[in-house]
Design a protein that fits this description.
A hairpin with a 2-residue loop joins strand 2 and strand 3. The chain has one domain: Dodecin subunit-like (2-Layer Sandwich). The protein is built from 1 helix and 3 strands, in the order βαββ. Helix content is 18%, strand content 61%. The longest helix has 12 residues. Pfam families: Dodecin. This is Dodecin domain-containing protein.
């Protein structure tokens, strides 16, 4: 029987939402192994002078515990 743990992370990118998710996976995978899935819980953007400066995502990362 497998045990799955879920952590929540926040990631951002100046390029877009897809890149923000990719950054989350890249950073989490440096310390977490056996990642099964990433659920994007929420999206957000940061603004300056009414212009988007960065894109952010809140992700739930699921991984199998050994």
């Amino acid at each position: 029987m497998s045990i799955v743990k879920v952590i929540e992370v926040i990631s951002s990118s100046e390029s877009g939402f897809e890149d923000a998710v990719r950054n989350a996976v890249t950073e989490v995978s440096k310390t977490i192994k056996n990642i099964d899935s990433v659920y994007v819980k929420d999206f957000k953007v940061h603004l300056k002078n009414n212009q988007i400066t960065s894109y952010g995502v809140i992700c739930k990362v699921s991984f199998r515990v050994e």
